[in-house]
Design a protein that fits this description.
Elements: E1 5-6, H1 9-21, E2 26-31, H2 37-48, E3 53-58, H3 78-88, E4 92-94, H4 98-101, H5 120-123, H6 127-142, E5 146-150, H7 154-166, E6 172-176, H8 196-201, H9 203-218, H10 223-236, E7 240-248, E8 262-270, E9 273-281
Parallel strand pairs: 1-4, 2-3, 2-5, 3-4, 5-6
Antiparallel strand pairs: 7-8, 8-9
Helix pairs in contact: 6-7, 9-10
The structure holds adenosine monophosphate (AMP).
Adenosine monophosphate (AMP) is lined by residues 31-32, 38-39, 41-42, 149-150, 152-153, 176, 178-179, 186-189.
């Protein structure tokens, strides 16, 4: 492995303290590994922002997986990850062990209420508390100047922004655009679970979100009908809808019409994969003629 790396939180803290004392700016990209272009775009953004250090963490965080979810089978590809991370411009790696992140007898829970409850929080009740806990540990340990998150996980971005503000952490949270495959499918480590046949059907998810978004922009009061039709389209093609929803883009409160900035968000099951995606949409203001 050619990148300098840390495995113990204590080593990590000492290095980060030293960087900060030397006046070096730290950009931090937390991931669970199995890196793809989506992750690499966050590393490149940190480099482009002029950070002196771009630190990538890889940790498959057990507390954000429910008991029947894919913790054991989650892809782990450290050799490839390390090579791709260097190429994208990462300067250091943090690879903590589960034991180090969750010492014997750990008891602390972290909940960002309300923002964690709807959408993915409905079917994955332990997910955001697990994310909030691990992100708080990492940000408190490293105290980076900036931390980079992908809008593919839009709800996660909101939860982390709220957490950072509430905990008075000094880090700026930077939300970066979703990177997609050429056919529109949002890149995800979980796309590896799709069979070739399922992979061919997967872009219908993004296409359906686009169709719903267009209809909502054109007929803002028809959002509920557009969502219902979208659900039907997906189900008919064997994409089982976990949720498909239009929400206020900041509070995530439900919307039955496109009256302001909104997020159109969904999750579908396709074979062994649970795919998520979203679009940020606003009402189009028609000019009077
Ligand atoms: P994960 O390894 O899935 O926990 O993701 C680590 C970070 O990469 C999170 O901030 C994700 O939102 C981000 N990410 C994952 N997929 C994409 C993508 N397709 N485009 C942009 N960011 C992504």
């Amino acid at each position: 492995m050619s990148l300098p790396h840390f495995t113990s939180p204590e080593q990590m803290r000492q290095a980060a303290d030293k960087w900060r004392c030397e006046g070096q700016r730290i950009g931090f990209v937390p991931t669970m590994g199995a890196l793809h272009e989506g992750h690499l775009s966050l590393i490149r953004r940190s480099v482009a922002d002029g950070n002196d250090v771009t630190l990538l963490s890889i940790f498959v965080n057990p507390t954000q997986f429910g008991p029947s979810e894919d913790l054991a089978s989650y892809p782990r590809t450290l050799e490839d990850d390390s090579r791709l991370a260097v190429q994208a411009g990462a300067t250091h790696l943090f690879l903590p062990t589960e034991q180090a992140m969750y010492p014997e007898g750990h008891r602390t829970e972290v909940r960002v209420t309300e923002l964690s409850a709807p959408l993915c929080g409905q079917s994955r009740p332990v997910h955001f508390p697990g994310v909030a806990l691990v992100v708080l540990k990492l940000l408190a340990l490293i105290r980076p100047h900036k931390a980079y998150f992908g809008q593919k996980d839009y709800q996660q971005c909101l939860v982390v922004q709220r957490l950072t503000a509430d905990m008075l952490l000094p880090t700026e949270i930077v939300a970066c655009p979703t990177v997609r495959e050429a056919d529109g499918l949002a890149m995800s480590s979980r796309n590896k679970y799709l069979t070739p046949e399922q992979r061919k059907r997967a872009p219908l998810f993004q296409q359906t979100l686009q169709a719903i978004a267009s209809r909502c922009r054109e007929f803002p009061l028809e959002a509920t009908a557009a969502l219902a039709e979208g659900k039907q389209t997906l189900e008919q093609s064997g994409l089982a809808v976990d949720y498909l929803d239009l929400r206020d883009s900041q509070t995530l409160s439900p919307l039955d019409a496109l009256t302001g900035p909104a997020v159109l968000a969904g999750a579908v099951f396709l074979g062994k994969a649970r795919l998520i995606d979203n679009l940020l949409i606003e009402p189009s203001h028609k000019t009077e003629s």
